[in-house]
Sequence to fold (271 residues):
Amino acid sequence: MRSRSTRWTAPALGVAAAAWVLSANQALAQPADRQTAAAAEEEEEPGPEAGAKRPAGPDERTGHILLQGRAGYSQPFGSMAAGQPVSERVSGGLAFGANVGIGLSRVTVLEASGSYALLSAADGCDGCDGRSLDLGLGFVYHLAQGIAFDPWISYGVGYRRAVLTWAEDSAAGQTASDHVFHGLDVARIALGGDFYPVSSFGVGVFAELDAGTYLSRPGEGSDAAAYGFFQFGLRLALDPVPRGTRTPAVSAGASRRIAVQGAGSRGAAHR
Fold:
């Protein structure tokens, strides 16, 4: 028969062995847990751009005076008056003009424009020609700003004075006479794009459609009718105030690191 001390020895050894194994497992698990937590913190640490809103680029249009000169071809269509197609008298010809605008916002410009067109004679109309002067006011919407290519679209209204010349029968025979028309352009729609090889000078293309009616015309018995002018060509764009130069913004993360490094350098110097 075993003694009482011998009978309790085996269970005591078993409990001690189990306690040692458990403590060893906990000791091994702690470094792994620390490594996992450190890795998670590194993954969760925001990068240089995380949480930092990118600042908007500099406003390169508000308050700027913008100038453009243009040249192209103008084609009239529609009627001088009811029953009097303009194509019976004149055809298209050279047109040139200018625009001046002031920037209202990053993408919007208030613009005044004017152009002058020299209209040639229509087929079969000897001695016919014409001139057209228009002045307008409208808004230009730019799709972008601060980049080399600047697409835009505009809408406005304007005044038009057209002088058409053709021969009429008189006591002295066929005599060329001027006929003056005053009209209102109720819609002046244009679009185009400018390329800026340098910051303050650009070259581009444009197309414009003007539609309206002549409110004053020779022969008061004639009824008003709609007319139109289609123009297209090239233009030179000038921004006398140089465009801003973008500078890379310092991110919040980079600023924080720089501040920490500066504090560390100052602490080391004090020590």
Remarks:
- Strands lie at 65-81, 84-85, 93-103, 108-119, 129-142, 149-170, 173-198, 201-216, 226-238.
- The mean pLDDT is 78.
- The first helix runs from residue 4 to 44.
- The first strand starts at residue 65 and ends at 81.
